[in-house]
Amino acid sequence: MNFIKITKRDDLPRNKAILIRGVAILLSLICAGLVMLIFGLEPIKIYTEIINGSLGSEMRIKQTIIKAIPLVITSLGILVAFKMKFWNIGAEGQIIMGAMAAAYVALNYGETPKPVLLLLMVIASMLAGGIWAFIPAFFKAKMGTNETIFTLMMNYIAIKFVTYLQYGPWKDPGAQGFPKIAQFGDNAVLPAVFGIHAGWIIALILVVLMYIFINHTKKGYEITVVGESLETARYAGMNIKSIIITAMLISGGLCGLTGMIQASAIERTLTSGISAGYGFTAIITAWLARLNAIAVLVVCILFAMLIQGGAYLQIAMNVPESVASLVQGSVLFFVLGSDFFIQYKVSLQGLFRKKNAEEGGAA
Amino acid sequence: MKKVLSVLLILALVFGLAACGGGETAEEPAGDEALKVGFIYIGTKNDGGFTQAHHEGTMAMEEYFGGKVTTIIKEGVDDTDKQAAKEAALGMIDQGASVIVACSFGFMDALDELANDPAYADIKFLHFSGYKMNDTNFGNYFGATEEPRYLSGIVAGMQTETNKLGYVAAFPYTEVQIGINAFTLGAQSVNPDVEVKVVYINSWYDPAQEKAAAEALLAQGCDVITQHCDTTGPQVAAAEKGVYAIGYNMDNSAVVPESFLTAPIWHHEEFLIATIQAIMDGTWTPESYYGTMADGYVDLAPMTDLVPAETKAAVEAVKAQIIAGEKPIFVGPIYDNAGNLVVPEGTTLDRGGIWETNYLVKGVTAVQ
Q1: Helix axis angle, A58-83 relative to A278-288, nearest 10°?
Q2: A268 and B82 in contact by Cβ < 8 A?
Q3: What is the pLDDT of residue B24?
Q4: ipTM
Q5: Angstrom distance (rounded) from CA B202 to CA B208
Q6: Please, where in chain B does CATH 3.40.50.2300 lie?
Q7: Which of B7, B83, B228 to mutate to test the interface with A (most CBs of A within 10 A)?
Q8: At residue A363, does pLDDT exceed 60?
Q9: pLDDT tens profile A275-327
Q10: pLDDT, tens digit, for every residue of B207-243?
Q11: Taking the CB of residue B12, how many other CB atoms lie within 10 A of it?
Q12: Least CB-CB distance to B173: which of A63, A178, A272?
């Protein structure tokens, strides 16, 4: 009595897959637009204002790029883990621990010359982020623990740890007793290049490096193989445990670097909210980019436009910021949904011709 | 072929939407002459407390200038996230705002950074409740809340039967400690046996936690609840338990009529109107404004009918003394709750002395 027949597709032509995704994005915009109409908003105007609000002036473009930087770097970090099918949901915590290590250096060695201090902060942050990711990786490699839950929980430990520092040992004595951590000295602040903090250069370099790493190095290849089939990796004599741990060190290290950049260039201090949700948004962007480093760059800029455009909507048009979240949610839903149609063929013939459904293995 | 058709259909739909969307694009012609002022709020403008009090001041100011001033509002900006505050301010500047008013302590470092950035030297920044400022374009403002707090303490001290007063507080920080101390001294001035129990919630704005903290205090036998946090949560908790509530920021006699006694309140328009006028006249220079009851900037909300006439008379008498400048709030000897003498006999704290507070006075117990 199966009216709808679902069969696995073996190989869909590349351009057809792109077409399906394009249609999905179009549908998502229409769907979000319909919801806007229900609430009495004008969808086309909202969409043009999102673009205007994210690219319409020099300041808006800068704000968009500033939001894209942490997204890109964190997405690259997540990409390495996801490539291996290691579900690292702990980017938030890795960002926070990276920021914490950078803050430790900045607050205690603030008199060090700027280039040295910044370099020390980068190293410290990548180590701290890497260690925070290493812990779940170690337990996964040695004991087969569930990394999704493990990395997720590590986030909350990181947040609470910063809160402890803020209320306890790192409390700024100059803040009238208010529980906050002191601002960094000028030496600990990333310089601006073309009016935007130097994080954008780091992000661009990392995109290229990551692309080369995944596609043109032995380690990158091994990570991909482990992700595709553990059996194959084992048969090929790869040291799976070592690959998992290396990949997670890179993944956490990149997330930690995001923390350093945000702490140094944006907050100029450490706060428990420093990750600002980028660690979760980056999961979406990495996934939408199909775990491709170059695509990550494009997707993250588009997402940053949505975030910046959404913030603009509220200030300029008095429209709730959540309208942009609506678009985000809708895009995600349809694009992830389209994956289903790319991998499976759905035929409705069953409705009309009950008898002879086509051949092909059932899903 | 079917796919081509469906794509065409979708496109038709999109353009259809465009057509019905493109109808009314006429924007209101905002006067180019008008001064644009951006307000950054931590909470929502109808939170029944802190942000609403600010917003009413904003609206009163806008109305006063009748078209010469327009405002841009951004609500719900996280004050622990510098980026959020910076973005809000930059977004407003991008929209043509030349004055930025930030209404929460946590916005201070963001404003400090922008005010001292040469790119925004033309923008004026006003910060509520902070201590940072500069000589050119960054000032702060606050009020002598110790005055109405002291008066509200008198009300609570005369009203309580269990001699236990509950105080839901945000952070263990000077501004909050000043309020707790003033309230306690006021209560003790009419009822020496009174005890004040404080619960810190470590947030300015958290409706659920504010209410939960009040419930914990009620469970300890407190029969008057007051607060230094943003929403009506503690007042609602008191009303549910059938005891009295002293609010903060707003006159909520209509919200919890069965419990509401009074509240220390703000008249932010007093500061805003004078300051915006000075900015428009070109006579403004950064200051650290500290409005008192005599200035009309802070006040005690009218006491409701739940307060007996003799209590009202006692409070009004002290109020008159405060306004006349005859009644300083912090007069030695004052002991902290560890028994140390913090203000010696014969000493009276001025504004500077008050803002060095880092203790709670005798009679207060606090849990964090």
Answers
A1: 70
A2: yes
A3: 37
A4: 0.76
A5: 13
A6: 35-143+267-291, 146-263+301-367
A7: B83
A8: no
A9: 988 999 999 899 888 899 999 999 999 999 988 888 888 888 877 777 878 88
A10: 899 999 999 999 999 999 999 999 999 999 999 999 9
A11: 10
A12: A178
Q: Which amino acid is at B290?
A: Y
Q: Could you tell me what percent of chain B has a pLDDT over 90? A: 82
Q: Which amino acid is at A143?
A: M
> Residue B91 is nearest to which of A26, A272, A312, comparing CB atoms?
A312
Q: Which among A128, A92, A125, A126 is positioned nearest to A272, based on CA atoms?
A: A92
- Residue A263 DSSP class: I
Q: Which residues on adjacent β-strands are paired with residue B37?
A: B71, B99
- Contact list in A for residue B70 (CB cut-off 8 A) is none
Dist. CA A231–CA B148, nearest whole Å: 74
Residues B173, A177: C-beta atoms closer than 8 Å: yes
Which chain B positions have a beta carbon within 8 Å of A180's beta carbon? 106
Residue of A nearest to B38 (CA): A315
CATH homologous superfamily of B146-263+301-367 equals Response regulator (3.40.50.2300)
DSSP state of A3: S
CA-angle at B158, arms to B154 and B164, nearest 5°: 95
Q: What residues of chain A have any CB closer than 8 angstroms to a CB in chain B?
A: 19, 23, 26-27, 29-30, 33, 37, 42-45, 57, 59-60, 63, 167, 175-180, 183, 262, 266-269, 271-274, 276, 311-312, 314-316, 318
Which pLDDT score is estimated for A311? 84
Bond into B333 cis (ω within 30) = yes
In chain A the domains, ranked by start, together with CATH numbers, are 1-41+320-363 (no CATH), 70-318 (1.10.3470)
* CATH superfamily membership of B35-143+267-291: Response regulator (3.40.50.2300)
What are B66-78's pLDDT values in tens digits? 999 999 999 889 8
Q: Do the Cβ atoms of B82 and A266 come within 8 Å?
A: yes
pLDDT band with cut points at 50, 70 and 90 for residue A2: low
